[in-house]
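notes to self, project folder thing:

trying the whole complex as one job this time. last attempt i did each chain seperately and stitching them together was a nightmare. two parts in total, labels are on each line so i dont mix them up again. if this works i'll redo the older ones the same way
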Amino acid sequence: MTQHRPHLTAQNTAIVLDSTADFPEAPERFPNWRVVPLYVLFGDESYRDYVELSPEAFYARLRTAEELPTTSQPTPGDFLATYQALSVYELIYSLHLSSALSGTYQSAHTAAAELGGQVRVVDSESASAAIAMLGFAIQRRLERGTTDEEIDTLIARFKENAGLIFTVDTLEFLRRGGRIGRASAWAGQLLHVKPILTIKREVIPIKRVRGNRKAVQEFVSAFTSTTEDASSLKVGIAHADAPERAEQLRKMVRAERPRAEIELVTTLGAVVGTHAGPGTVGFFWFDDRE
Amino acid sequence: MSDLARVQELARGALASLERNRQRIDDLNVYPVPDGDTGTNLTMTARAVVDELDKSSTEDRAGLVKEVTRAALMGARGNSGVILSQIIRGAAEVLGSEATIDEQVVARAFQAARDAAYRAVREPVEGTMLSVIREIAEESEQGASGIPALLQRLVRRGEEAVARTPEQLAVLREAGVVDAGGAGLLEIVRGLAATVAGEPLPEAPAEREQLSVAAIHQELSRFRYCTTFVIEGDGLDSDALEDEFLRLGDSLLVVGDPEALKVHVHTDHPGRALEVGTRVGVIDRVEIANMHEQTTQREERLLEAVPDAPAAASGAVAVVAGEGNRRLFQSLGATKIVEGGQTMNPSTADLVAAIEATDADEIVLLPNNSNVILSAEQAASLAAKRVEVIRTESIPAGLAAMVAFEPERPAEENAAEMHEVLEGVTTGEITIASRDVELNGLSVRKGDWLGLADGEALVRGTDFEEVAAAVADRLLAEPRGVLTLLTGAEEPTLDDLVKQIEARYPDVEVDVQAGGQPHYPLLLSAE
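result (full assembly):
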């Protein structure tokens, strides 16, 4: 017997992501989902992430660009327009990139304040596929009927337990964007050292290893030491212009945790790519047991 | 003047003031994320308001308030832009609700702006735009006779508030800058004050007053050398000299009197700038700095200013031969390098001295040669610091271990991690036999190439590539991820060798580095 009558459903509750969730097909997959794009700027030219600049076009341009791009959060107006277009929904969960990495959350928060209590703005304290996967977990509950208390508990558990590990080819992109502070302790670029990093609100270095083989070994040990094989185990993979590395990880999951569901394999979009750089691979997991 | 025209004029004044400071404010930006875009974000936000007003034909005040508020909100870029949009909203709502606008209404507008700004931020932080709007609002409570006088007063208080931000926020203090958002807000108020007073905007305001060379350096220059000197002479004509210096570069300051002038110019030709000085007088206190270097240093300073950078718990001392190898060890965080290797073993005293000279309480020591391990252990027992010896027998093994070194960790933890890495590393060496010798059943002739794997003679030959390929095959007999090749002072040609290895081991990443070590044309490691 549940204590609270379920009152949130996929028919009365919407989910808004920002484009750093790297899940551009959200509205096609779920009628109650929307994505608000951040902006990528090459000099004075501004593009809406995914909408006006695909990941493929972005990485191609990055290879030849003389000046590295910068990014900008959506305006509160961008969020407001999206929220207003969803006015038929009673409640909106607006899920965003860690507020320590971007002002996107602040922008959404400002827009939400215009609308009273209709929008719950959530700081995922994470990035990329993790945001989409939090959305999937919420959507699963909406589809069977849920309560806001249950969603709040889920969000807290996700922030606490969801796993994220990633590696970049060079720390230069994170450093340039000001997204990593301890770069001085993370030198070793001369020897092609791969940093292994995570995000807990901020980008946090875990260790550094040489070569992709060891990097993948680190992914495996981080993943297997904190999970058991179960159908409730959900996995996401995101890569920046490195599909072969994503494929390698997919095979690893099949071998190590055959019952797990790989719910998202995606390319890092232009905004996340601007700050992580080509060759980045991210691996995400969450055991969504009830 | 209509309300619309008046608002348009004010918004343009604020925007113009921001625009001329945009680059400077970008460069101040270290908080909350040091990505150097605060000036741009504030300018774009202000421009959104100006653009909207340019299109507007609204004449009623309530309608204008709505338009301005909405344009700021829709156009807000960055955290600073969002806060600005709330400041604009707070102020606009007060200004729109009164029939006549006098200094008291303007004062209340600033107070409402402050309240709106604080409401917008969940966890207000002092030393930011918020403290600046708070102080300006406080100052407005003091009153003044007439709006121009009030705004002038607010600009002065704003300047003080901006100057105080480094005292309030550690990250600014450490970076040696004032808050970018606060500085931007001040420029907006300055633009409004100038517009209301009907005066032109002051040229680059804060810097000129202090004539601070350091402040000018917050601006980026396309010229390489920052050149400063003093000219002493008789009847020096600063205007004429300014014209001459301007042809050489930018960021020019010529200040002083006809007997002594201080010159500051950014130029690619510091020599010519000095010649201008020697032609009209005697030059003194010449300083020429390479600004590209300064820019790099500033970047480093900004990075260091990011909070939570943990203090070093341990340092790494490594015994290294070869300039390239030295650079590799340093790039991995080695704090002290002792020159030495196969034929030049450092003494125990050299090692103790290096340990004591390292700025860390605990040390990991990498001998990087089997002949140095004993003296390293002796040095460890003699030194006053806690020292962990990592028993590395070769330079490539030492490099592999250094990858696991983290200064934030105590030496014991580093040693454990580094030894664990070493277990997965195998190393090789290629050298030239210095005499005839029997080794491991190999008859080696003087002048032969000799290949060793993990310290044991493995292969001899007269062809370098054959010997090297045989060693590489041995190192890659077990599955490995990376093969490192460190070329020696006598640099061998490796193109064919590398192609051959890559073809045979497609999963192995081959990393060739110029090590510069003597006696060993090639050192190898696989891990």
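what i see at first glance: Residues 129-144 of chain A form the longest helix (16 residues).
need to look closer tmrw
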